[in-house]
Design a protein that fits this description.
The protein has helices at 3-18, 20-38, 44-68, 72-81, 85-89. By secondary structure, it is mainly α. It has one domain. α1 (3-18) crosses α4. The termini are far apart. This is DUF6688 domain-containing protein. InterPro entries: DUF6688_C (IPR056491). Pfam families: DUF6688_C (PF23543).
């Protein structure tokens, strides 16, 4: 799992926590279009283009994470490590304020 995907998944976790209706809509859109589009990424060049195209979104996701979360790096690392799962499962565990 690369850092870009960890950040995207942490952002999805924030959306799910703070904006569940928006998260459901975005998730349905991604589920219906994401996999079919990903099947067209068959070369190293195509993967590099997608990676670079996702960079602005990654930066936006990081901005949101650092704005709404007390420990954004913990949320990012917890995506696939299992570390901090119990804390981030509580709605206000990582929230600022």
């Amino acid at each position: 799992m690369n850092r870009q995907l960890l950040i995207a998944n942490a952002f999805e976790n924030v959306l799910e926590q703070h904006m569940p209706a928006s998260h459901r809509m975005i998730r349905r859109l991604y589920d219906s279009w994401g996999y079919p589009v990903s099947r067209h990424i068959r070369s190293q060049l195509a993967a590099d283009v997608v990676y670079l195209a996702m960079k602005p979104l990654e930066w936006f996701f990081l901005l949101v994470l650092y704005t709404v979360d007390r420990r954004p790096e913990d949320r990012i690392q917890a995506q696939y490590s299992g570390f901090g799962r119990k804390a981030s499962a509580r709605p206000d565990a990582n929230r600022i304020g």
